[in-house]
Design goal:
Layout (H helix, E strand, L loop, with lengths): L12 H7 L20 H10 L5 E9 L19 H4 L5 E7 L4 E8 L2 E8 L2 E6 L4 E6 L2 H4 L5 H4 L5 H9 L6 E11 L2 E10 L6 E9 L5 E8 L7 E10 L16 E4 L2 H11 L14 E3 L6 E4 L9 H9 L1 E3 L2 E5 L4 E5 L4 E4 L3 H9 L2
């Protein structure tokens, strides 16, 4: 396990990844010849040794988080930060193409439309066919060599990216075992199972399907406590290892498209924000605070963290229910308490534990 996998990742990490737009699918039953037996440590080592993959494939998503159907956004708004809310409900399909750190494409297939995020070298494009709008940014040369390919990662999380975040939860509060082999996209995979020792966390278990040949995570399945069916699933339904045709990573907006140029400073801020702390937030009082440990961790975001006028905040308001002192967003894997004073408490724990943490502040 690399050190970067062991950074701050409280219990809210699982739903946060889902909220960022992770696409999912089911892990099929095991079949075919069994893989050589491996211990959990050996499977973790196999994952750690896998390299940046060149691949093309299809991801399928299903989420059973207990959320109501969210209201549809108006045309042109889902690229501004509200699309992740839509991805919390219902099934979704995406096509993924990757070739090294500087070439990535994700196509999210909506009903009668699609959204694209494309990175090719220093160029990044975001496109929504629903309203024929596109956003473009040029990565500065001094940033391009250091930045990860956010063009693909900001749109969705592929199983290997999601697995890296979830595997950071491995500590003494987690039991790690290897279950029966599974078949994902026609490939034999080890079934690495993470089970929280906590009896109060909402997360019952996490299963990561690990390709038996390459160590590439092929799928992730998260089960909530008290539910028989997975609350969240992500996996390839078909997968081809090898570099896609180079033309996949070239993009030009269609005729008549409305194109917005994004200045480089906005890209840098987005990159830093994806790593949890916006660069403009230098006052330690504005940084998130973590109470508890392991799967029972609760994250407190101070008042003023989010803009109350944003489209995402407006949709979030409609997805919450009123509770004493604020509003509650409740799902099978995470609860989020938004207080009237602007503070936000989140964690994979019960609403009562969030309320208790809020009253102690």
């Amino acid at each position: 396990m690399t050190r970067k996998w062991l950074r701050w990742l409280p219990a809210v990490a699982v739903p946060a990844v889902i909220a960022a737009g992770a696409l999912a699918g089911s892990l099929p039953a095991s079949a075919g010849d069994p893989l050589p037996s491996k211990t959990p440590e050996q499977v973790l080592q196999l994952i750690a040794q896998h390299r940046e993959p060149a691949l093309s494939g299809t991801l399928e998503q299903s989420s059973e988080l207990g959320l109501p159907e969210l209201p549809k956004t108006s045309a042109g708004t889902d690229s501004s930060g509200t699309a992740w809310l839509e991805l919390l409900t219902g099934p979704h399909t995406a096509r993924v193409y990757r070739d090294g750190p500087d070439n990535a494409r994700i196509q999210i297939m909506d009903r009668l439309a699609e959204r694209n995020a494309v990175r090719h070298g220093n160029e990044i494009w975001f496109y929504n066919s629903k309203d024929n709008t596109a956003s473009h940014l040029q990565i500065p040369a001094d940033v391009a060599g250091k930045a990860e390919h956010r063009g693909g990662k900001d749109a969705t999380a592929t199983p290997d990216q999601l697995a890296a975040m979830l595997l950071a939860k491995i500590d003494p509060s987690t039991d790690v075992t290897v279950g029966a082999d599974v078949q994902v996209a026609g490939r034999a995979a080890y079934n690495l199972v993470l089970t929280p020792k906590s009896e109060t966390t909402l997360v019952a278990s996490i299963a990561v399907a690990v390709d038996g040949q390459t160590g590439l995570p092929l799928g992730v399945e998260v089960k909530a406590r008290g539910q028989a069916d997975p609350a969240f699933r992500v996996a390839y339904t078909n997968l081809t290892l090898g570099a896609p045709d180079a033309s996949v990573f070239t993009f030009s907006p269609p005729p008549g498209a409305t194109v917005k140029e994004i200045p480089a400073p906005e890209y840098k801020s987005g990159h830093d924000a994806a790593n949890a702390t916006p660069p403009a937030v230098k006052d330690s009082a504005r940084k998130p605070a973590v109470t508890g440990s392991g799967w029972d961790s609760i994250v407190e975001f101070p008042a003023g963290t989010a803009s109350p006028a944003s489209d995402a905040t407006a949709l979030l308001q409609q997805a919450t229910v009123p509770v004493q002192g604020g509003r509650l967003l409740s799902t099978a894997l995470v609860n989020v308490l938004v207080l009237d004073d602007g503070r936000v408490f989140a964690g994979s724990v019960s609403p009562e534990r969030l309320q208790a943490a809020a009253t102690q502040k």
